[in-house]
Amino acid sequence: MTAARATDRRPPAADDLLIVDDHPIVLRGFRRLAEEAGVALVHEAADIVSGYRTFHRYRPGIVVTDLNFRDDGLSGLSLIRRIRALEPATRILAFSMHDDPVIVSRALESGALAFVLKDAGTATFLEAIEAVRAGRGYLQHRLATDVAMLNAGGRHAPLARLSARELQILSLLSRGRSYAAIADTLSVSYRTVINANSSMRRKLGAGSQAELIQIAVSQGGMSA
Known about the structure:
Keywords: DNA-binding, Phosphoprotein. The protein has helices spanning 3-8, 24-36, 48-58, 76-86, 101-110, 122-133, 141-151, 164-174, 179-186, 190-204, 209-218, and strands at residues 13-20, 41-45, 60-66, 91-96, 114-117, 138-139.
């Protein structure tokens, strides 16, 4: 077995944590929270590429990641999927400024075990970290209620018809990204982006590309 193959099979470091966010203040703040919670070792990354590389190298048992990274839209969803594909046992806490239940639901579908809003208090973050360390799911009460209503069909939310991948592509489209740029960001083919675009227009009843993007922006601030 080669050294590379041996590394790929290394078990997760259960007590270690990786925090991925593009704001230095958030990184420092969450490091302090993790240390306060008794996490043994905290790794940091400022974008999804370095986040995945850091995870691949150290295999921390816990990952905390934002969903939005500057001009890359909801690329945190891709990071969550890639990490879970590489190491299914990894416990992931997603956090974001977005409180739309559709986005929360898609993060959970992508593989996150918990979701916390960025404006939550310190106590909430500590509770979430403890839950994830123990392998339990965690959602703030209001988010849990909204997601439950969404899944039960109790809320009219056009974006609920979209898959996690389509939601991510729509987020990038709303930021003015070209098909080629989106394909490169998500590591998918150009044809995949085109097909997803056609699927979204059909699901959302958009008669044009401009109307599709308008729906994205109007449904929860996709370009924020």
